[in-house]
Amino acid sequence: xxxxxxxxxxxxxxxxxxxxxxxxxxxxxxxxxxxxxxxxxxxxxxxxxxxxxxxxxxxxxxxxxxxxxxxxxxxxxxxxxxxxxxxxxxxxxxxxxxxxx
Length: 101
What we know:
Blueprint: E1 3-6, E2 23-27, E3 34-35, E4 42-43, E5 52-55, H1 58-68, E6 72-74
Keywords: Electron transport, Membrane, Respiratory chain, Transit peptide, Transport
Pfam families: NDUS4 (PF04800)
Protein name: ETC complex I subunit
């Protein structure tokens, strides 16, 4: 029962960074998922996959794992490369391709 401690990635469907500030603890699957033959649904008998704990800091998550005796793996977040752009850049003369409707 190994745990992963990580910061969740930004939602790809929105530009905001909500729900990415806290650290998350998820358990690695111990039992492979099975495909149910009649309906084709994917299922698992591993109940630990349903647990997801959230912590304010990485140190809190590590302290929880050490207190409970859970082996853990910390995955450091990658810094986001944000490109600053203004609305006026859409109509700039130096734009590589002309703006059209």
